[in-house]
Amino acid sequence: MDLSLRSCKKFVHLDLKGAPPRIGYLIELIQLFADLGANGLLVEYEDMFPYEGELKVLQSTIQPPYSREEIVSIQDAANSRGLEIIPLVQTFGHLEFVLKHEVFRDLREVDYCLGTLNPHRDGGDRLVQDMLQQIMKLHPKSTSLHIGADEVYMLGLGDESKQWLSVPGRSGHQLFLSHVIKVAKGIQESSPNLKLIMWDDMLRSMSPETIKVLSYLVLKMLDYFTFTFPVMLMERYTSAGMSQQWAASSFKGSTTVHTCVTSTQRHVDNHLQWLKVASSLSADIELQGIALTGWQRYDHLSVLCELMPVGLPSLASCLQTLVHGGFTEEAQKKVVKTLGTVDVGDTERLSSRTSCSFAGAKLAELIVKLTSLLESTELRHFQNNMFVRGWFTPYHKQKKTVSPLIAQQIKTQAKMILDAVESQVQEVRGEMCLLYLDSTVQEWVVQHVTPVLEPLHNLLRDTETVLNEMGLCTESIS
């Protein structure tokens, strides 16, 4: 049984750039994380932070950001349970929430990519340092800061970067490292004791000699979910002077960009793999902790991933897997005792309502049921059934040779299905409003429900139109 991951810190990633919970629910979640074995929070505010001054434009206009008082209350709740907080602030890639604004447009590496910062502009350096300073000023007890720096797409493709790279001896690796070093030194001038962490993906193709320039500035966090676990890569970082490393797993938000229901087994398997990796590491590697990521969006502009209530059984199971060194009987008992279930997809257990009492359990149950209905063959392929394809094709409608009997039958069936779905949608809306702001509820429905129901609504309107033209139907269809 491996002790390196069992004994290291376990941080739950709170991705607030999508579906930020109401503050009361968020504080409930923090208590639950502590109950399940977490030691800290990796908090990614993005546009939900109350930036001030020139950066006030970064605040979300879709929903109000957390107030300064609310951010203090988040820290108070965490501190009361012994949870550390590490803010995560993107400083190079994934800056869509910043660079989408016209006032910062000239800081993009290339104009059509909203995510990558131009590393050559003084304005970009000032922007990043201002963001970091404002975040850390409101987190005075935090001793570590995550500076992101992953997936810096398009780096080197801007005109200024091309000119910089045209000098013999310079490389894209050096371009990346020069910006990270500048960011790290800038924040450490004001906070010399602050430990800095960054994602490692941009470093994976670099030699140990190249990476050594970062060894005294930042710790690496290896984020692996779908890839083969790189023991050799971790050893290579150690040879570059980076013996202290972090791991990053996943408890939700990493299956597909639009997943609604979390697969607990998939994510538990991820943590079992990490346990195997940790057990095979040399004594030279000091594993500082593991962050259990729970992405709410793939990036600022993408669709919502699984909401937190649906991912809680997965998070609980993953945390307990780390606590016990495997998904043992004791781990499973702890999850069931705390949540009442180990898998939100277990509709039989969830629907029993006898034991599932975790914060958000009812919403999780309703989302599972609604998603199952939305993905049903009857709903997804209604437009391809025998009656629609045989008697209600575009040709029939164009030539007005529709069978009224068949049209009425299609209309009746379509309306029956839509009524059943919309009844469940209203239940989801009502429960979701208790935990999230109305803007999140509207976004979730428009992104995950509307695309599935729209073809059926169109078909219903078509049958209504045809029957009205035949003088056989007078009721309106909304």
Automatic annotation (TrEMBL):
One of its GO terms (molecular function) is beta-N-acetylhexosaminidase activity. Keywords: Hydrolase. It is an enzyme of class 3 (hydrolase). It catalyses: Hydrolysis of terminal non-reducing N-acetyl-D-hexosamine residues in N-acetyl-beta-D-hexosaminides. Residues 63-207 form the Glycoside hydrolase family 20 catalytic domain. GO terms for biological process: carbohydrate metabolic process. CDD domains: GH20_GcnA-like. Its EC number is 3.2.1.52. Belongs to the glycosyl hydrolase 20 family. This is beta-N-acetylhexosaminidase. It comes from Sinocyclocheilus anshuiensis.
